[in-house]
Design brief:
Blueprint: E1 2-9, E2 14-22, E3 28-42, E4 47-61, E5 66-80, H1 81-90, H2 100-109, H3 116-150, H4 154-181, H5 186-209
Antiparallel strand pairs: 1-2, 2-3, 3-4, 4-5
Helix pairs in contact: 2-3, 3-4, 3-5, 4-5
């Protein structure tokens, strides 16, 4: 549940412009919007009641693809702080919520099984490092392309840069699909696009240093 309030009056415990989004139910999203509200607490039970006035409730059922809207004069949202804290303590992180150290231990625990969950977690681990490195790889490639574009037609430089970007995106997409399926190790799928992009950048820098036009040859086996 997410709560957003534009303004709070601490003395009167009143809220202005309240927005609540509740996605606790599977495939059902509920949003509550009200111009004003008031907070009432019960210290003995640890419960807070948020009273909302003159607002609307919108319920979206993703499974049935239906939307319901209800206007209200008074609406109450209750939250038990003690239960919420207890649930937070028992909450188990998913792979995407784990830090690298926790994710590494999680992957190690699944290493003997090597199921879909293992490959998905391993893919996420390498993606956390390979995607930021892609900024360096693509930036490194852009430098020689920019230098070459000065001595060639502008459209040629733009087209070549777009072509390399599409190539990188295609390699990354293939790495995500095949790495998740376990066709080849996720480390290959996540890092090969960066390695290839950096290698092309090195090749272009070398051609500039030698003052030669860009040439790309395919190796024959």
């Amino acid at each position: 549940m997410m709560l957003y309030v534009n303004r709070i009056d601490l003395k009167t415990r009143t809220f202005t412009d309240v927005f609540i989004e509740d996605r606790r139910a599977a495939k059902v999203s509920v949003t509550v919007v009200a111009p004003k509200g008031k907070l009432i607490s019960e210290p003995e039970t640890g419960t807070f009641h948020l009273l909302l006035f003159d607002g609307t409730v919108n319920q979206v059922d993703l499974e049935k693809r239906s939307v319901n809207a209800i206007r209200f004069d008074k609406y109450q949202v209750s939250l038990n702080a003690r239960k919420a804290m207890s649930s937070a303590k028992n909450f188990q992180k998913g792979p995407k919520e784990m830090n690298p150290e926790e994710l590494s231990r999680y992957i190690e625990s699944l290493k003997s099984e090597k199921n879909a969950e293992y490959y998905l977690a391993l893919l996420d681990f390498h993606k956390r490092f390979s995607v930021p490195f892609a900024c360096f790889a693509l930036g490194f490639l852009a430098i020689p392309l920019g230098i070459r574009a000065k001595s060639a037609r502008k459209s040629f430089g733009i087209g070549l840069g777009l072509g390399f970007f599409i190539l990188y995106y295609a390699m990354l997409s293939a790495g995500l699909v095949f790495g998740e399926a376990g066709v080849y190790p996720p480390i290959i799928g996540m890092w090969v696009p960066n390695i290839v992009t950096t290698a092309i950048g090195v090749r272009l820098f070398d051609s500039i240093n030698r003052d030669r036009p860009m040439q790309f040859r395919l190796w024959r086996f």
